[in-house]
Amino acid sequence: MTRVARSPHERTLDGEAQRHAIDCLLNCYLREYALPRGEATLDCQAQDLPMGLRQVEGRRIGIHLADGSRLALLADRTSVLGRCRFVSPPYFKGHGQGWRPLDAAELARLLLAPMNGPERHGELLEQIDNSLRITRTFLTHARAANHDPADTLLRSEQGQVWGHALHPTPKSRDGVSEADLLACSPEVGAQFPLHWFRVDPSLIRHLGDDPRDLLVQIAGADHLYPCHPWEVARVLADPLVERVRGLGLLEYLGPQGLALYPTSSVRTLYHPELSHFLKFSIHVRLTNCVRKNAWYELDSAVALTGLLAPLMAELAESQPDFALMPEPAASTLDLSAYGSVEEAREVTECFGILYRQNLDAASRARYRPQVAMALFTWTLDGVSACQGLLARCANSLGVAPAEAAVQWLRAYAERLLGGTLDCLFRHGVVLEPHLQNTLLGFDAQGLPCRVWIRDLEGTKLVPEQWPAERLAHLDERTRASLHYDADKAWKRVAYCALVNNLGEAVFHVANGDAALEKRLWREIASVLEAQRAPLGDPQALRELCAGAPLPSKENFMTRLLMKADREAGYTALPNPLTAACRGECR
């Protein structure tokens, strides 16, 4: 079979997809495995490095593998957390061999070889390849979507081609065809109608607020119930659904109604005219998890909105620039009268929808909100996405770029940490303020002045402040899904806020300037110190400010070992707060 020659443009896209896959794999490997074991250096001075690395400016990264072989590559920037941006392929040197470059697939097999669980390597390698191919597809079809330029939220939701920077499979979407990817993925500016069923009203179940008016607004008719396009084939093939369709209680109508926009989480849909986001079930593995709405998550999200209503009201007074986005409603179909418990539960999960309160039009116009992940990532041109915003902020403030960066980062950290730590230490509420869950709003000068945290699925409660009797009205499985012990609670909050979120913010705001990076971490240290007394000087925060390591979630090992996200382990990172302040703050 004759191979079709690829154009220069296609080769460029292949190279970009490869480069990003390698960036993710090696950053995960360095952070979770090589740096903690002393098997890597971010300033390699070996004399036998490949000529291509010795003759170019940058930091030479060296990695020693378990069998004595080595990896070397070049980075144009590194951070105190060991985060790198690589600008060369990884070069490999085995015993008695010369250096040779590796592609992403070769690198993945090499990194996995010494790790436990070789029977699991095949699945992870397939997902790494899947993520690489999908990234290549998105790069091919990435385009400026025809959105309202004033809708900064939608632009940021759909402007994240690269995804999670420290995950081995940031764009993996198992079992989804290319046509379906292009039809329903935010990375290509998609918008699409839902698939609808005419449903006997006796089969529809609502939790919390009644969403029927919203569904009528989308469908344009009564007694219709929607399904995500990626889920409809599974639904139509379900034996219980077939039986109920045969009884005339359920009729498939196909796609119709208002076209909605997928957000950065893929399965959560948005439209500026709707009062709520709609979070659908899709039995597709995105990064770590199959993104279905488990039956108990429908219960827990709505229950949390009710339980946290007093907290939300208090935050409006005590942390006026910080807010949670309520999820006051859920809906699904209940076919339990026509099948077994197991059959009915499957259908309940397939049809499950959570409704998250949207920002109103006035707030969107005033604050110009953006998803944090869209700011602390790379543009398609390889520039840190926040740099344009920072330049405009410096111009508006009339200060030097570095000074604007410090003011900007401090304004963001004060709001993010003020609300997140207040929730944890004063109320026992464990948020997940990672980059994709955090929205930023801005004042007239471009400084962060507002933070919203979304996705109550990831919100948990500390049992000491939320004992079982306080949750007695909930189903036992729902109750169990809500509790995190104090240690796990702290690790999750510290990772999400300080490593995943502010760690990436510092990396992109500093933009390779090591002195500025130190200043930014000093600002975060100062914000944390100021929080200690108002929060009662909690032990975990006191220890962190004194130099305790930062917990970093192990995305690579969690995926390799096929653990539930809830059971992820943590790597201890050297504390950048005290390193930045040593000799200056104490």
Automatic annotation (TrEMBL):
One GO process term, biological-process aspect: siderophore biosynthetic process
Coiled coil feature spans: none
Record InterPro entries: Aerobactin_biosyn_IucA/IucC_N (IPR007310), IucA/IucC-like_C (IPR022770), LucA/IucC-like (IPR037455), PvsD/AcsD-like_thumb_beta (IPR043033), PvsD/AcsD-like_thumb_helix (IPR043032)
Residues annotated as domain Aerobactin siderophore biosynthesis IucA/IucC N-terminal: 153-376
GO function term, MF aspect, one: acid-amino acid ligase activity
Residues in Aerobactin siderophore biosynthesis IucA/IucC-like C-terminal domain copies: 407-567
Family in the record: Belongs to the IucA/IucC family.
Name by which UniProt lists this protein: Siderophore synthetase component
Species this chain originates from: Azotobacter beijerinckii
